[in-house]
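Comment thread on ticket #2218

A.B. wrote:
> Attaching the input chain for the structure job we discussed in standup.
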Amino acid sequence: MSDIQTLLDRYSTGCDLLRTAVEQISASDYDAIPVAGKWSVRQVVCHIADFEPIYADRMKRVLVEDNPTFFGGNPDVFAAGLAYHTRDVAEELQLIDMTRRQLSIILKNCDIEDFQRTGVHSDDGPITLETLLERITGHIPHHAKFIDEKAAALNAVK
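C.D. wrote:
> Ran it. Output below, let me know if you need it in another format.
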């Protein structure tokens, strides 16, 4: 199995990892902040749901355009302005899952050379499709660790 295939497999199962992490938390605790200075579970899931389509757009554009430009986004600005407190965790998980399902089909049908196509990030400069895929694939495991921390902290209180 190639590194790209392993990455694609991890990408396509990322939402399962996130759902498993979220299932440790009761819905009544989605807004709890058991670890000082960290986001709630709802905020984490909304953050992921906001950035999945952004990365999907970036990867699609790298596939079909010559060196497209894309811009960074500040997660704290998104969290402050996109009504995270009103959003439904189950719906956000569905969005993440559907985004990854759609893009997985597209990526699995790419030629290996396509993963070396590039776009230009406003802050980071040239980035390959492979690097974009690595970044978004690692995004859920990164945040799942924090959800695990929240679950442990909540269980310690109960």
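A.B. wrote:
> Thanks. Noting for the ticket: The chain has a mean pLDDT of 94.
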